[in-house]
Write a structure and sequence with these properties.
With about 220 residues, the protein is of the alpha+beta class. It has 2 domains: about 110 residues; about 80 residues, no CATH class. Helices cover about 30% and strands about 30% of the residues. The chain is built from 5 helices and 10 strands. Strands 4, 5, 6, 7, 8, 9 and 10 form a 7-stranded mixed β-sheet that branches. Strand 2 and strand 3 form a beta hairpin. The two termini are about 35 Å apart. The structure holds zinc ion.
Amino acid sequence: MEITVASLQETFRKYNEEIFGNALPMPNLRVSNAKRRLGSMHHRIQKIWGKTHRSFTIVVSNYYDVPLSLIEDTLIHEMIHYEIAYKNLKDTSAHGTLFRQRMEEINRNYHRDITVSKRMTDYAPRKSNQTETYLVLAIEMNDGSHLLSSVARTMLADLERQIKRVEKIRNFCWYITQDAYFRNFPKVRTLRARSVSAEFFTNLTAKMTLVKDKNGWVRTL
Ligand SMILES: [Zn+2]
């Protein structure tokens, strides 16, 4: 199951009610791509104008293809850390006596399988996380339109020769990127591109790595 902030919020609400008696305010929930741990909880204390502000963040990794029950167990594990920190309870260590007591109580009463640590080697990364690098052709036309295309690498030289003959093209650049936006773009072997807004074009190309422009190579592929 793909993890999103919305799905974490929903799961948090559910178990906050069922297990924690709605005692925990909604923390910041984030989805990460961490390989080494499925979840973590961060606690920040800031003094602003003499007032103490506490913020809690729970991060759950979307890297591994794990069953829903494990995602839930991971979130509940982090909620135990959160509960201990939020209520200023003292434990003997990060996973000390208090943590383990609470964990075992929850496992028993709610039929969960929360543990102190999970062996990540038991799980495979999600397919969608196998990052692919795309060669992107970004074109600005004389009429102000903006085009993006994901190009088969072997076609770079051929397509560039064709572009240079198109008078309607004002500017073009080649980029590489791992942005998932290009996942469902066909890898073209001809001059075919998708029209996007100028703003979207500017924002997206700013995040990509320029490899070649009109004047030549900026970096090697
Ligand atoms: Zn922990």
